[in-house]
Every structure is written in C-alpha cells, then in structure tokens.
Write a structure and sequence with these properties.
- Strands 1-2 form a two-stranded antiparallel ribbon.
- It is mainly α.
- It contains two helices and two strands.
- The longest helix has 57 residues, at 2-58.
Length: 105
C-alpha cells in the first residue's frame, strides 16, 4: 500500500514539473514573438519615415527599398525579417509589410 502511495506521489510530482516546464516554455515563446513583432513594427515605421522624407524632399515616393537604403541611410535587418515594399505611384505612399522569418530561415 505504501509503494502505491509513493508511486502516485512521484507521478504527481513529475506531471506537475512537466506542466510547469511547458508553461515556462510557452511564456518564453510568447515573449520572443512579442519582441519580434515590436522589431517588425519598428522597421516598418523607419521605412515609412524615410519614404515620407523622400516624398517631402523629392516630391515623389521612392520606387524601391534599395533607393531608401542608398540615398536616405536606411538599414534594415534582412536576415531575420522579410520586407515587402510595394510602391503604387509617385504621389501615394507605398505598402510596407515586415514579416519575421523565424528560426533563422
């Protein structure tokens, strides 16, 4: 009878430990995702600011992201983020999307 109680106690302890480990891993992953989203938002905002600066100076939005990098000192983390820069017209702001690649893809 005593061994059954010990077995149940050990099983309960192991399950509790597994639940705690899973919860910690979940929270760490969520925090990392939030940090990556904040970085993506920051990159997007920097691109928008440089594009607007270009529009004010040149009276036209740039046709490419590389133009902003070459002429307006924009630097972005292309290793971790995919940047989709879609211009519409010289007088309309471009569509800018920044996507975290995740896991060093």
């Amino acid at each position: 009878m005593k061994t059954i109680k010990n077995h149940k106690f050990i099983t309960a302890c192991v399950l509790t430990a597994l639940i705690i480990i899973c919860a910690v891993l979940f929270l760490v992953t969520r925090r990392d995702e939030a940090e990556m989203q904040a970085q993506a938002d920051s990159i997007s905002e920097a691109i928008r600011e440089r594009a607007l600066q270009c529009f004010v100076i040149e009276n036209a939005y740039p046709e490419s992201l590389s133009y902003l990098e070459e002429h307006y000192g924009l630097t972005v983390n292309k290793r971790d983020f995919k940047i989709i820069y879609t211009p519409f017209a010289e007088n309309l702001p471009p569509d800018i999307r920044v996507i975290y690649k995740g896991g060093g893809q």
